[in-house]
Every structure is written in C-alpha cells, then in structure tokens.
Specification:
By secondary structure, the protein is α/β, with parallel strands linked by helices. The protein folds into three domains: 101 residues, D-Maltodextrin-Binding Protein, domain 2; 88 residues, Periplasmic binding protein-like II (D-Maltodextrin-Binding Protein, domain 2), CATH 3.40.190.10; 67 residues, Alpha-Beta Plaits (2-Layer Sandwich), CATH 3.30.70. The strands form three sheets. The chain has a six-stranded mixed β-sheet. Helix 3 crosses helix 4. It is globular, with a radius of gyration of 24 Å. 33% of the residues are buried. The mean pLDDT is 93.
Amino acid sequence: MLRIAVPNKGSLSEAVTSMLTEAGYRQRRDSRELAITDPENDVEFFYLRPRDIAVYVGRGVLDLGITGRDLFLDADVNGDAEELMPLGIGRSTFRFAGPQGNFSSLQELSGKRIATSYRVLVDRFLAEHGIDASTVRLDGAIETSIRLGVADAIADVVETGSTMRAAGLEPFGEPLMESEAIVIGRTGHRPTGLDVLQRRLTGVLVARRYVLLDYDIRKDLVEQASALTPGLESPTVSPLRDSEWVAVRSMVRKETTNQVMDSLYDLGARAILVTAINACRI
C-alpha cells in the first residue's frame, strides 16, 4: 500500500486535500484524524506538520509526501529525498525584508541579524552569496522581531506582502526562491502507485487550466479556426448535416476563453459553447 504524507493544517493543507479529492482519492472528513486508508486506491494518507514531511519521507518511513518546496529545502534531509513533481498550488516567494528605507541590497545584510523560521535555507543562501550575517531561529510572527530588538531584518515567505507592510517592513534584494507545493519521494525510489498518482495529479492540473470549446464553422474556414484553437494535439472536426459546415471541439486555456470566443465569432463560427473539464488524462 502506498503511504503518503500530506499537510495536516493551514492553507496548504486545504489546497492539497482539494487536489487529491479531485484526483479521486479519499480524504479525511474530520481534521482530528491523523491517518486514513483509501482501500479502493491502495493508498494510506498520514496528516503531518508540513515541516516534518520531508524527514519522514527521507528516512523511508513513508513513500511520498506533499509539502512546500521551501519547507522541503529547509528540512535538510541530506539528499535522502527529492522533488518529483510541482503542483502549481500554494505559490509564494521567499524574500528578505527590513524596515522601510533601511536596506536596498543583500550585501547590506553583512554583520546584521536575520530572523527566520527557515534557518537552514537562509544560512545556505547567505553562504552561497558570501554574506556574513547571523540568523535567529523563530517559529512564527517574525515580523515583530525587529521592533522587539531581536533582529535587524527578516527572511520569510511572502504571498501578498500585506502582513509585512502592516509591520512597517518592505522586501528588498533578489528572492531567495520561488516556492509551491511539490510531491517528494525517497531519492532513487519509485514505489508502486507513484505513476498513477502523478498521472492523476497531472490530470487535475490540466482540468483546472483548460476548458472544452465546441463550435460550428464553415469548412473553408477550418484552417483559420484551428489556428485559434489548436488543442493539445489537434482539434476534433466532425461533419454536420449541412455539408458546408463542420463541428469543432478543442481544449483551450481557461484564461483565454473569452478572447478566443470573440475571435472565432468574428471569423464566422457560431454555436460556440464552453464546458468545464472535471477530470482528464493526458
């Protein structure tokens, strides 16, 4: 049975649970449940702190895990675990920040104290960039560390930046990294069921990004219409009762749907319909 660790709480937990549900896996109904079994898919899920997931996977206790890339790198599992697949959810940027107007470049961090919940990740970044600064490990609410005199700057995950701005801070310098939810596994190990999981999750990602577009158009305009809706491989073209017209079906990017519909209509397409994709295999 495939054993998978998933985040036990927070926004990342909600996003991952939703994605696994869309992929056809059973998920817990009570947040107090620490583990559940999905016998139909031969999977067992364990709900753990996102920061601990890489440790369990790296030591081979669990086969796979879903966590943030930032938390995975900060776990410092010495190469025992590896990233297998990005999931495109829970995206954030890891940045340095300080009081407004105090810093303009990363080199100005030399000799300063940096508060962070990601000490391993930050220490590695500072060493790679030749910056001689010290780090202060805090578990949360690090924005107040500067005001309380514990640090001169902070390094933290930035989603909207509103929390930093409320504390009178502003990001500076290049980002340490771009993070998102990822699937991780033990290095060099591909457990039974991994291929199915990856295929299903890829299907969820595609279904979220695309819609199905149907329209009727005259035969002599099919080539021009196909240029607007090329699909993943090629659009489906079917004959209609009127031999001068055909029906076309194609997948298009969700965010471009209305622009494509306008262009098709101007070209001469009619009966243009959009259908959501609930699941797919690519």
